[in-house]
Amino acid sequence: MLDKIVMWIPIDDSLLDRSEDGRYSIFNFDLLDLDLKIGSYDVFKDHEGNVKTQVLHHVWSKIPTSHTAMSFKLFHEGFIHPYVELKCSPAKIMQGHNVYGTDWIEQGALEMLGFLSEVQPTLYSMLAISETEVKQLDATYSFRFRDDKEAEKVLALMRNVSTQHIRKSTKDATFKNTLYFGSERCKRYARKVYVKSNEFREQLEEQIKLAKKNDKCAQRVVSVMSDPDLQAFAKGLLRFETGIKAYAMKEQGIPTNLFQLIRYQRANPNFLQALWLKSNDQLFKAFEGENMKLSDHETVFKKILEVHKTVSTEKKICLRKTNEMMDFYLLLENIGVEEAKKQYTLKRFLNLFGELLESGFTSTVLQRLHVNPVQNFDHVSVYIQLYKAFKKEIPAGTVSERKARNIEKFYYDLERFGFTEMKTKYSRPQFDKLVASLKKCGFSLVYIQNLHVQSSNNVIPFIKMFEMKFEEQVPPNFIEPVSTFNQRLLKLVS
Predict the structure, then answer these.
(1) DSSP letters for 305-330
(2) Any bridge partners for residue 141, and if so which?
(3) Which residue stretches of the chain have pLDDT < 70?
(4) How confident is the model over 8-31, as pLDDT tens digits?
(5) Under 8 Å CB-to-CB from 333, ≥6 apart: which residues?
(6) What is the rounded CA–CA span in Å between residue 162 and residue 431?
(7) Separation CA 221–CA 231 (nearest Å)
(8) pTM of the model
(9) Can you give the residue ranges of every domain in the chain?
(10) β-pairing, 16-18 with 24-26?
């Protein structure tokens, strides 16, 4: 659904003057002559005590419509070509709600321009309508869950989600039941996720308050939003709203001139859906994979082992034990028996010392290794002796669990310490490699990032939401809204 249009409509060139320093101004123009809400950047009293103002400007104002209001502002002078910014939800001004609606830009834009011309005819006559630029389109589509509680649970899981190119908002927590990803000021996409029915109830409460103050538009909105079928449709919806900026559209060869964009959409009716899917692709991929009971550690290891076990294709010699005993021998030689004891538990020390005795060294030799190292056996001879004693032949077809065990340990550390803290314990490449190893086993990124958070619940629900069903975004009886304004009267080009 097209949930918002932000347009910049320039003042006609014929009405503008440009000074030598590059500042724009409008010929024979007084901001006070327009029926606008005016503010000042400089307010003071003269020597007689009279209040004076300098640098007047138009402040953001509301234009009433059939339902909810539109926002607009005139930027009348400065180093940027003067323009009017006009923004609203086409669905709200045409239907009275944005639970569902159309993807089509044309009728919504026509309605917006129509109300601007009706409420501000003088200002409208000054605008170069054909040069209107679309600065942002908000596309929103929803996944349906069994109820609001399930949708809220998924939203809670998403609080810990971040991907390579999509970061959690610096707000860190949800604001008014809304989870933000990235900054709204980013040049390509502004993303947010929320449970629709929660937002719906908040909006309805606001409109009821206005309706009680005899606001006719609000009264019409309340009438629309009180529909039981509409309220039922909103339940269980988790909405993914993406602000698609002009920069992103231009990168993909999509025109930003309003009327060129309308023609483009006629030729490419699904382009808004495609942009939305592309902008959220990484976020949806974070949910790919299986989830299970956190307490089922045996199952966890089996899944890891299935993917990461290594099977020898030929006979091999394992030197791990040989190298371990050589390191212990060198430690005895470097620091002596008494200091070496301090490096291990007593049981571990005795086991290692005993294994050296079994390999052929005497207790006397081992006790005196540190006394006069030059008289000891050369290290090559020692290694050969240890090799003969501790080499291990691994026949072809032997399954090794070593890699799987390391990944299993990483999984349990995530469960114990959390995703964020574990990031600090590894280099970025190491950490990413281990996360990728778990994802390869079928664990979703959402699941991995929530292991610590959800450990007290023992269960992370299985979530499958990768195939967006665009055909189910509106009810079966939905009728595309049509603008009430005439294109010819608005001087539009088509």
Answers:
(1) HHHH-EE-SS-EEE-HHHHHHHHHHH
(2) 240
(3) 40-55, 160, 162-176, 183-184, 286-296, 312-313, 396-399, 453-468, 486-494
(4) 999 999 999 988 888 888 888 877
(5) 369, 370, 373, 376
(6) 14
(7) 13
(8) 0.66
(9) 2-287+468-472, 289-309+401-462, 316-394
(10) antiparallel
